[in-house]
Amino acid sequence: MRIIRAKDYEDMSKKAAEIIASVVTLKPDCILGLATGSSPIGLYKNLIEKCKNGELDFSQVKTANLDEYVGLGPDDDQSYRYFMNNNLFNHININIENTNVPNGLEKDADKEVARYEKLVQDLGEMDLQLLGLGLDGHIGFNEPAPVFPKVTQCVELDPSTIEANKRFFASADDVPRTAYTMGIGTIMRAKKVLLIVNGKAKAEILAKVINGPVDPMVPASILQFHNDVTVVADEEALSAL
Ligand code: F6R
């Protein structure tokens, strides 16, 4: 793993945006795996700026997001499709038809996970997969479990994830209990992985991810087995290493 030390959130966002920008510049028709949450908001702002000032062209880029809450549609301001449209896609010159997020409104979980896994496979090898890190070590919504989940699936969210994500909802009761997520196997097939982490609260889990044993109870620890992972983390997040 390559570890890039950033001063703070702003610096992490800038450095991570440079990495994504280099992929898009080298391969204008690249395939990007994207994430939501608070970690990538600053990074997306940097990409928007680069697109607006003519440095970056997303017209041929295709994307697939990691996950979506079951039950939330694109018009729900807590859905990940809404997040992506508002924090990135609506502000860059990407063809919205080339952007993909699991369909939270599909009630037939077997149908949706099969559709999304096939869609991601058909897109081809991801050139870069962006990841944030959950407080419990999750990536996507792959929560601590006895085994690493291979493919896209419908998962029950961990109580600690519901607690962490309630800040975006009126109350913890409003956080959906299930989500569709790419599997760890799906994520591990990406050519490059970019993990962004900030803040003191994630210091201990990040130390486990980087230095601990590879253990499905710390899902992101599997990244130790990927041969092109870059971690961009701020000083607080790196403080337990
Ligand atoms: C979001 C996702 C999650 C988040 C993680 C960290 O698409 O897949 O794994 O990356 O929960 O969330 P934040 O960035 O809000 O701390």
Write out key terms for the chains shown.
alpha/beta; binds fructose -6-phosphate; 241 residues; 7 helices
Radius of gyration: 17 Å
Structural class: alpha/beta
Average pLDDT score: 97
Distance between the termini: 13 Å
Question: Going across the major beta sheet, what is the strand order?
Answer: 1-10-9-6-2-3-5
User: Per DSSP, what share of the residues sits in E-state strands of 2 or more residues?
Assistant: 15-25%
- Write the element-wise H/E pattern from the N-terminal end onward: EHEHEEHEHEEHEHEHE
Share in helix? 25-40%
Shape: globular
Number of strands: 10
Please report the number of helical segments: 7
Largest sheet: 7 strands, parallel
Q: Which distinct ligands sit in these coordinates?
A: fructose -6-phosphate
Task: Give the low-pLDDT segments.
Answer: none
What would you say this structure looks like, in words?
The structure is a single chain. The protein is α/β, with parallel strands linked by helices. It has helices at 9-26, 41-52, 80-87, 109-123, 159-165, 184-188, 203-211, and strands spanning 2-6, 31-34, 62-65, 67-69, 99-100, 128-132, 153-156, 178-181, 192-197, 229-234. It contains seven helices and ten strands. Helix 1 (9-26) crosses helix 2 (41-52). It is globular and about 45 Å long. The mean pLDDT is 97. Bound molecules: fructose -6-phosphate (F6R). Fructose -6-phosphate (F6R) binds at residues 35-39, 66-67, 132-134, 138-140.
